[in-house]
Design a protein that fits this description.
With 232 residues, the chain is of the alpha/beta class. It contains eight helices and ten strands. 47% of the residues are buried. It has a five-stranded mixed beta barrel, surrounded by four helices.
Amino acid sequence: MTPHINAKPGQIAKTVLMPGDPLRAKFIAEKFLTNVELVNTVRNVFMYTGLYKGKPITVAASGMGVPSIGIYSYELFKFYDVDRIVRIGSAGAYTADLKLYDVVLVNEAYTDSHAYAEMVLGQKTHVLRPSAKLNAQLLENALKLGIDVTVGRIHTQDVFYSSRPLEKTIEISKAIAVEMESFALFANAKKLGKEAACLLTISDNLITHEETSSEERETKFSQMMEIALELA
């Protein structure tokens, strides 16, 4: 056990899906898994292990932001011997072409600050990439399920309420959408020789100002969930 996870050895599966919201983790476990066990309750960051189509998988909340997912993904990789983590989260679109509920598969994560990469990897980089192998598997899963996926660069932003003009942020990041966690997940995977990927559902559009409700973000992002669950 770690300071942040009280699961016992063997209670975490080799494949972990990480939504940000603990209640989304609970929803996924109850809706899609069988033989479900709640294996972590520290700080109410719920983690569940169960079976999907007879195969073990863990759904673990990450909390919000780089520091939070940085802690949980590192501990899962390092101390629970997890092989691969897929973040399944929400994102705000930087382009009018992305509609509410569209699914995005991340092929690059850009961050404004190189601090996390410098501290974890010892390098000053603003861009990190997921596992190419894992991305290929997720694309194959989406194809089999008949779900359209947009592949692109996302912006992992540390500041939610930024005063920088949106147009400037989009110009700098060259991203199609924004979220707050993927860069740290990719850094930890690279550091520890593990696999990581990120699937996102568009929850709001910063260009058109369309948005979903908190309840919809918790329960209605099922396509992204189904693509990731097929990795079990």
